[in-house]
Amino acid sequence: MFQGASSLSLDAKGRLSVPTRHRDVLSATTGGQLTITKHPHGCLMVFPRGEWEQFRQRIAALPMSAQWWKRIFLGNAMDCEMDGTGRVLISPELRAAAGITKDAVLLGMGNHFELWDAETYAAQEAEAMQGEMPDVFKDFSF
After folding, report:
1. Which of 15, 20, 101, 106 is the most buried if burial means most Cβ atoms within 10 Å?
2. In which band, very low, low, confident or very high, does the pLDDT at 141 lie, cut at 50, 70 and 90?
3. In 3-state terms, what secondary structure has residue 85?
4. How far apart are CA 130 and CA 105, in angstroms?
5. What is the DSSP string of the chain?
């Protein structure tokens, strides 16, 4: 399970260095094979290949009424591999879709990661913190 936030910078070629704590697990469990696709909230989802296959099957099984969402998730998916130093190339198309130019935030979300433009994430997090908590948290104890 992946968790935690990491502030990262993409290099001039659009590569990001996966934090060591995640790199070791990804190398051991997937050989560094990842799949990256769009998320409806404006970030990117980064899946270890095995988790991607499960997600892909669930999306592919959706009815025709979800065809555009199939296109968004499956049609934009790109397979990639960590290189020997733990870097991953984020395609120009996916970087543009998420508005990522240099500074990014990588969030561990359990079985996958979200990759955000740093400024976009900070603004959306601040907005969420100012709002009401969703009803699902009404009986939640902290």
Report:
1. 106
2. confident
3. coil
4. 20
5. -EEEEEEEE--TTSEEEPPHHHHHHHHHHHTTEEEEEE-TTSSEEEEEHHHHHHHHHHHHTS-GGGHHHHHHHHTT-EEEE--TTSEEEPPHHHHHHHT-SSEEEEEEEESSEEEEEHHHHHHHHHHHHHSPPPGGGTT---
Of 59, 96, 54, nearest to 74 by C-alpha is 59
Task: Mark residue 4 as left, alpha or beta (left: phi above 0; alpha: psi -120 to 50; beta: remaining).
Answer: left
Q: At what angle do helices 49-60 and 67-74 cross, to 10 degrees?
A: 160
Please give the radius of gyration of the chain, using alpha carbons only, rounded to the nearest integer: 16
Is 3.30.160.250 the CATH classification of the domain at 2-130? no
For the purposes of burial, counting CB atoms within 10 Å of the CB of 90, is it exposed (0-12), middle (13-18) or buried (19 or more)? buried
- Residues 40-49 pLDDT 10s: 999 999 999 9
Q: pTM of the prediction? A: 0.94
Can you state the percent helix, strand and coil of the chain, rounding each to 5?
40, 30, 30
